[in-house]
Amino acid sequence: MINTFCRKPLWETSRTLAAVAQGKIPADLVITHARLVNVCTHEIQEDVSVAVACGRIALVGDASRCIGPGTQVTDAKGRYLAPGFLDGHIHVESSMMGVGEYARAVIPHGTVGIYMDPHEICNVLGLDGVRCMLEDASRTPLKAMLTTPSCVPAVPGFEDTGACVGPEEIAGTMDWPECVGIGEMMNFPGVLQGDPKVHEITGAALKAGKIVTGHYSLPETGPGLNAYIASGVRCCHESTRAQDALAKMRLGMYAMLREGSAWHDLKEVAKSVTEHEIDTRFAVLVSDDAHPHTLVEQGHLDHILRRALEEGIDPVTAIQMVTINCAQCFQMDHELGSITPGKCADMVLLESLETIKIKKVWIDGNLTAENGSMTMEFPSYTYPEWATRSIHVGEEVTADTFRLPASSGSVTVRAIEVIPGRVGSLERHITLASQNGLLESDPSQDVLKTAVFERHRGTGKKGFGFVKGFGITCGAMASTVAHDAHNLLVIGTNDEDMALAANTLIQCGGGMTAVQKGTVLGTVPLPIAGLMNDKPAAEMSRMVEALEKAWKQIGCTMPSPFMTMALISLACLPKLRLTDRGLVDCESFCFVPLEV
Amino acid sequence: MINTFCRKPLWETSRTLAAVAQGKIPADLVITHARLVNVCTHEIQEDVSVAVACGRIALVGDASRCIGPGTQVTDAKGRYLAPGFLDGHIHVESSMMGVGEYARAVIPHGTVGIYMDPHEICNVLGLDGVRCMLEDASRTPLKAMLTTPSCVPAVPGFEDTGACVGPEEIAGTMDWPECVGIGEMMNFPGVLQGDPKVHEITGAALKAGKIVTGHYSLPETGPGLNAYIASGVRCCHESTRAQDALAKMRLGMYAMLREGSAWHDLKEVAKSVTEHEIDTRFAVLVSDDAHPHTLVEQGHLDHILRRALEEGIDPVTAIQMVTINCAQCFQMDHELGSITPGKCADMVLLESLETIKIKKVWIDGNLTAENGSMTMEFPSYTYPEWATRSIHVGEEVTADTFRLPASSGSVTVRAIEVIPGRVGSLERHITLASQNGLLESDPSQDVLKTAVFERHRGTGKKGFGFVKGFGITCGAMASTVAHDAHNLLVIGTNDEDMALAANTLIQCGGGMTAVQKGTVLGTVPLPIAGLMNDKPAAEMSRMVEALEKAWKQIGCTMPSPFMTMALISLACLPKLRLTDRGLVDCESFCFVPLEV
User: Fold this and answer.
1) Chain B contact for A35, CB < 8 A?
2) What is the percentage of chain B residues whose pLDDT exceeds 90?
3) Cβ-based contacts of A279 with chain B (< 8 Å)
4) Would the pLDDT of A3 be above 50?
5) Coil, strand or helix at B37
6) How far apart are CA A83 and CA B123, in angstroms?
7) Alpha carbon distance B106, A114 (integer Å)
């Protein structure tokens, strides 16, 4: 964002705004003949004009006296004018782009502000990486509010991350001008158990008068949820059942109803508001994760609004959920979230309320996008070299690296069974016949060798396991997007291809790849922290599509397998996961041996 | 309030609350079998229990596991449990009591928090007086949030106040822990004209992230109201027409719908929500001014809620207007305004939603009032001696002091005509026959001599004029409650009684009195700043009643004349007013001579 959330603070512009409202000074911009989507009163107001000066709203009503010779006048011709959309919870890294290209991708879809939790880059590069994201954001018109990652590492002691961020460091960020609170407090067990370090983190935000954002994924809405909310957590995007979202709202927690690229929760959670006659001020729509091809093909919050309408939510109510409700959640409604005097002039012009088709987008009073394309140019940020050289594997990786000696001729191993479109995994016990004293993948059972290499500090740590469910018949795939430590993850049918996949990513600075019989079929290079690229969304989308084809070519039967693959290491989710330190039982939280 | 708004900050209690919610530590208090008025979702939830610890809500739902041997258990027996009521705009001084006795009067009516603007004492004693009010408040369980008076004096250059508070001093109070913003910015002309000093005051609050509360009494909702709101003013309690309140809400301003002792606006302004199908989150109910007999005979916010119900507002919607809406207006909804985990345990138990009859009141989890009486004791505050010796008239007042020489045998004078129950006044030109070369009251025309004595610094300044409309036939009345400078105001039919009335108040340290033919018929002593007494509400109410009888005895035909009288000096309202400096034309803002 330019100048942290607004072009100028209100106290520097209030006299000008007052003069403009009264026609003493001409406005910079006047939009005439709009149907105003009034999110304060939940009304559509006919034939409204809006006057803008210094990037803020000066007047809503009859703006005829605010027009001077230098005023830009835009006739809305009866189209709907709504506040610009806010995404209350988003990991920009999941778009595989930096904030600059992300902004170029989402602004034309009506997004003017995001509450971003740069949890992924923080796991790789620590708060220095977060600062890079903020630098990147500062060049864009997008208002990028920071919620400081609260759980780095996510599962201390079970994985090696590129950084550890403690309570004191997190507290230190509360003074950053971009910071509005702390990012999703995934460590809800720590909150519930009263872990002093965890409460020190939430307390740092509370002390600073900032927001604690949540992540409470249990289907339990009694003692646990109450304890979590009582600890000061203000919102949560993890409801997957309507009753959970409803319970959160009843307990005064903002229920962030999620429709992400991989998490299609809205069909179910929308029922919390459509099947109950409730005040919906505590409901917010968020994306959480949006992949490049989702952004390109479906859109961002405009798409989520269309989905909300499909689920039966009234259009004005839905728009409140991405405007004033979100602004009130973050106690920023004095700046954002409504087209009312004094607020930032962040507005979208909609062709209709049914299609949420975005005609124009203004941010801080500047026309920023029109008809689906950016109209405002801004300089791109180049991530520093150290941020693009984050892959440090502690040894040369060869086929031999993947040799797994078997303890006997026939071995029963623990395999992680993945479930497409679900975050959970199962533990399967599979019997493999050793080959020349080694354990190998067995595509006939859909059981594949898997390795995770520590890739931040070259420690040479690595873990081995087996996965089931990807359907690969011949070849390997690798990724440095492997939540949350983002180590180098490799899956394959043979050691040679696995080595090639690993080395492909080591050479290009990270990303995702698929190889077969010594040939690289497709790669999405993600050199920024091994997570992102500086290419535009359309190009990223094409690359991801090409990679998906390559995945199919090696036999992977799963739709969008990279998200499922990226969760194989996520040791905060049940049941069995593989990190660079080994196989983790994520219910008892202990390491378990590969062989049963 | 004890410990500024809450017993302990959340970050010091979150671990305890989490433990209590999960039944690991017993709660201090559990309320069982309540019908919960859920102001978040606008629902009534049946058979809900609430667990409280450290003065905060730990759990809402099934609290059975939170009950231990030391837990106090209160069976609500199906009664309605609602969040404690918040008054978003109140001048405590209008109750004629300090904050301690005020708290004792309003808490049994369900009031747990007030946003007080101690504008009256500030005009007399400056910020030192405000600090006394805060000291007084700090002994009570009532949460008294300070909005620093923004306009002292109200009309600079036209009156002498006891103090002048400039932008820098106001800015200095933004660091006070009790301060949540600035009090009603009555100087809306200054805001609209872009007066740098005025915008410096509003800017001080905005810079500090605090709230600017408003006072916009014009029936103009176009350029002026837009300019006012664009300057950062967040709320306004001055709407007297439904369309004005509606316009404010549409412009994102909190419309504070007022039902005060003297201002019965609700009948009209309630239509803004009852005759329009709108989201009512921007509507708040406030009292502004509540006199002791109103508090004793009718109640406080419970009375206003009943009035709201009479005007057709749904009970839960009305309760939202004194709870969560008010808390969101002040961006304090993370602490106050709902019965949800982590919030202050401020609750009321209602016999029914129709009568709003208050059975019990808890503040910070303590039972504070029951069945209309306080159950919690707290020490009273004694105002310092300098605060009780605020009457300093610069000369001995005798009958001769009131002699007004006439310029000729028949003189046409400007008279202030008051209108009962309205704040405006009219300018009348009245012809008086001089008596022995002097101008005298003429009860036959209901025209009475009036004097205002500067009473803060003994400067000897005084102004003379005539008023019409009180109907006094023989006698005088005087008051040191005379907005906003609170100088000594005297009205009478003869100079001797006027002198007696003035001297009665000078001797008792200020107050209100009525005299007739050399006899004091009734006095309400208000020794604290000439505005307040330390007596309980019931006693104050009896004294005011006795004084009203005395007023009737001297022929005053007006109901509750003291409020009307108190506005005679209020030079920020049209049309003609009398200050210690003389007659002020409050439209052209210039002094005008007594004789036309």
Assistant:
1) no
2) 93
3) 40-42, 281, 320
4) no
5) strand
6) 42
7) 43
A60 in contact with B at a CB cutoff of 8 Å? yes
d(CA A254, CA A315): 19
Residues comprising chain B, all counted: 596
Confidence at B3, pLDDT banded by 50, 70, 90? very low
Put simply, the chain A residues between 382 and 411 with a CB less than 8 A from any chain B CB are none
Alpha-carbon span A30 to A34, nearest angstrom: 11
A6 touches chain B (CB under 8 A): no
Q: Minimal Cα–Cα distance from B206 to chain A, Å? A: 6
Give the whole-angstrom CA distance, residue B77 versus residue B95. Answer: 35
DSSP label at B481? -
Cα B220 to the center of its chain, rounded Å? 24
Residue A2 confidence (pLDDT): 39
| Structure token digits, residue B254 | 């909190």
Q: Which residues contact A298 (CB under 8 A, 6 or more apart)?
A: none
Distance, CA of B381 to CA of B387 (rounded, Å): 12
Strands A447-453 and A488-492: antiparallel
Residue type, B489: L
| H or E element, residue A33 | strand A29-38
> Cβ–Cβ contacts within 10 Å for residue A47, how many?
12
Nearest to B49 by CA among B29, B69, B22, B68: B29
Q: How far apart, in whole angstroms, are the C-alpha atoms of residue B255 and residue A53?
A: 25
> For residue A222, what are its two tokens?
């009694």
**Tens digit of pLDDT for each residue in B262-291?**
888 999 999 999 999 999 999 999 999 999
Cα B283 to Cα A485, A546, B39, B247, B303: the distances in Å are 48, 54, 13, 12, 17
In the predicted structure, residue B427 carries a pLDDT above the cut 50: yes
Token pair 């006899």 in the structure block, residue: B519
**Which pLDDT score is estimated for B251?**
98
A vs B: CB pairs below 8 A: 226
Burial (CB count <10 Å: 0-12, 13-18, 19+), residue A590: exposed
ipTM, interface predicted TM-score of the complex: 0.95
Which segments of B95-158 are extended strands (E)? 111-116, 143-148
Please state, in angstroms and as integers, the Cα–Cα distance from residue B180 to each residue in A331, A465, B143, B465, following that order.
14, 57, 12, 40
Tell me the two tokens of residue B501: 């009335």
Tell me the pLDDT band of A4, cut-offs 50, 70 and 90: low
Taken in order B493, B496, B500, B503, the sign of the CA dihedral is positive
The dihedral of CA B543, B548, B551, B553: what is its sign? negative
Q: What local confidence, expressed as pLDDT, does residue B2 receive?
A: 39
Give the pLDDT of residue B4. 58
Measured in angstroms, the CA of A572 and the nearest CA of chain B are apart by: 21
pLDDT at B163 over 90: yes
Three state DSSP letters for B443-506? HHHCEEEEEEECCCCCCCCEEEEEEECCCCCCCEEEECCCCCCCCEEEEECCHHHHHHHHHHHH
The span from the CA of B561 to the CA of A503, in Å, is 91
Rounded to the nearest integer, the mean pLDDT of chain A is 96
Residues A478-491, buried b or exposed e (16+ Cβ, 10 A)? bbbbbbbbbbbbbb
Give Rg (Cα) of chain A.
25
Question: B228: which chain A residues are within 8 Å (Cβ-Cβ)?
Answer: 18
Q: Which residue has the tokens 């006044």?
A: B425
pLDDT digits (tens, 9 = 90+) for A519-539: 999 999 999 999 999 999 999
CA distance B384 to B83: 35
- Whether A261 and A294 have beta carbons less than 8 Å apart is answered as yes
Window 306-335 of A: residues touching B by CB (8 A cutoff) are: 320, 328, 331, 333-334
Compute the mean pLDDT over every residue in chain B, rounded to the nearest whole number.
96
